[in-house]
């Protein structure tokens, strides 16, 4: 059994509500500072951990999150990978699920915990949810099993007592503390009196391969949500996007679309142009089964790829990741039908 050592954790503050600290004299909200955090959350000093912090300068609102910041996060984690036992990313809630999904693909064969968390109220406010989210995220990032290995070597979101695989998670609530859910995969852990880990659900790295960060993303992707009465000219407008590389269709139920000949003809024409077409369901829970009904089978016959039970956040970032590496069309299709980071159930 490996001898215990003092865990070292790197906290990365990107921006967001959790790091906004109210100045008691002016009432103004100020950005994250680890020294201020330690004063507001004195429990941090009770951890027998070495905790360091890096702050985005300037911090960004999560509404402004985009691929260049995912690359920046990947760079920070990869540059400090050998120096820390785990990482905690503090992030605004609005696009947290997109960042978690992106990092799950960009941090290949991850062997350490990357826990993303935030809060609905600033950490300095009396009723904040940020304190519990921060403390538990740090504890999970530092957790080791009996062999000294990380308990959760994955990119995860921790929010309101649930640890969820990042690329399975979506934001569901703009007001409550239960802001995130993972509908198609149970939580990897739940925090109560004790933190109970579901070891059978947790992914492990391949010990024969190294950790490999990736820094290439291609955002020439669009999502089209189908709705009753959708007009033909909306689909036609897609042909005016000269460099479009992938189209995600959010369809009904188990992957169904209107039986409109013009819709199928336009999809076939996009496919002929080399655009990757992917089908995901508008439902929060469940998966695409295009062979189930004729309204789904028509999409399969038009060359639309099955998105299985993927979240929109995961599908967008997975396509950006694959397209960014300029893989051949056939290889991208193969990987779209493969779970490469636990993002789909095939």
Polypeptide structure, described:
By secondary structure, this protein is of the alpha/beta class. It has two domains: 8-213, L-asparaginase, N-terminal domain (Rossmann fold, 3-Layer(aba) Sandwich), CATH 3.40.50.1170; 221-336, 3-Layer(aba) Sandwich (Rossmann fold), CATH 3.40.50.40. The chain is built from nine helices and 18 strands. The strands form five sheets. The chain has an eight-stranded mixed β-sheet with strand order 4-1-5-7-8-9-12-13, sandwiched between helices. The protein has a four-stranded parallel β-sheet with strand order 15-16-17-18, sandwiched between helices. Strands 2-3 form a two-stranded antiparallel ribbon. Strand 12 and strand 13 form a beta hairpin. The longest helix is centred in the N-terminal third of the chain and has 13 residues, at 67-79. It is globular, with a radius of gyration of 21 Å. The two termini are 36 Å apart.
Chart the SSEs and their pairings.
Layout: E1 8-13, E2 21-22, E3 29-30, H1 34-40, E4 50-55, H2 67-79, E5 86-90, H3 96-106, E6 107-108, E7 113-117, H4 130-142, E8 155-159, E9 162-165, E10 170-171, E11 180-181, E12 189-191, E13 195-197, E14 212-213, E15 221-225, H5 232-236, E16 246-251, H6 261-272, E17 276-281, H7 294-301, E18 305-306, H8 312-324, H9 329-336
Parallel strand pairs: 1-4, 1-5, 5-7, 7-8, 15-16, 16-17, 17-18
Antiparallel strand pairs: 2-3, 6-14, 8-9, 9-12, 10-11, 12-13
Q: How would you summarize what this structure contains?
A:
The chain is an alpha/beta fold and 346 residues long. It is built from nine helices and 18 strands.
């Amino acid at each position: 059994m490996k001898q215990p050592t003092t865990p070292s954790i790197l906290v990365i503050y990107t921006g967001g509500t959790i790091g906004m600290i109210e100045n008691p004299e002016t009432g103004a909200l100020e950005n994250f500072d680890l020294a201020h955090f330690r004063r507001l959350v004195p429990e941090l000093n009770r951890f027998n951990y070495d905790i360091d912090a890096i702050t985005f300068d300037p911090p960004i609102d999560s509404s402004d999150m985009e691929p260049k910041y995912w690359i920046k996060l990947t760079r920070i984690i990869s540059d400090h990978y050998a120096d820390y036992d785990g990482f905690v990313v503090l992030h605004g809630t609005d696009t947290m699920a997109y960042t978690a999904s992106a990092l799950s693909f960009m941090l290949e064969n991850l062997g350490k915990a990357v826990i993303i968390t935030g809060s609905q109220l600033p950490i300095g406010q009396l009723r904040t949810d940020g304190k519990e989210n921060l403390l538990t995220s740090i504890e999970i990032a530092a957790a080791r099993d009996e062999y000294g290995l990380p308990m959760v070597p994955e990119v995860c979101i921790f929010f309101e007592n649930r640890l969820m695989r990042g690329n399975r998670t979506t934001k569901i609530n703009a007001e409550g503390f239960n802001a995130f859910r993972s509908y198609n995969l149970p939580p990897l852990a739940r925090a109560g009196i004790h933190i109970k880990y579901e070891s059978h659900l947790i992914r492990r790295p391949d010990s024969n391969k190294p950790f490999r960060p990736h820094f290439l993303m291609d955002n020439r992707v669009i999502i089209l949500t189908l709705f009753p009465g959708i007009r033909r000219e909306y689909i036609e407008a897609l042909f005016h996007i000269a460099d479009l590389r992938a189209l995600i269709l959010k369809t009904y139920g188990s992957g169904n679309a209107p039986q409109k000949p013009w819709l199928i003809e336009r999809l076939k024409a996009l496919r002929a142009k080399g655009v990757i077409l992917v089908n995901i369901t508008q439902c929060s829970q469940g998966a695409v089964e295009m062979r189930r009904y004729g309204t789904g089978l028509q999409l399969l016959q038009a060359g639309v790829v099955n998105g299985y039970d993927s979240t929109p956040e995961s599908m967008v970032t997975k396509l950006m990741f694959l397209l960014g590496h300029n893989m051949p069309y056939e290889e991208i299709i193969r990987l779209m039908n493969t779970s490469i980071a636990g993002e789909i159930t095939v």
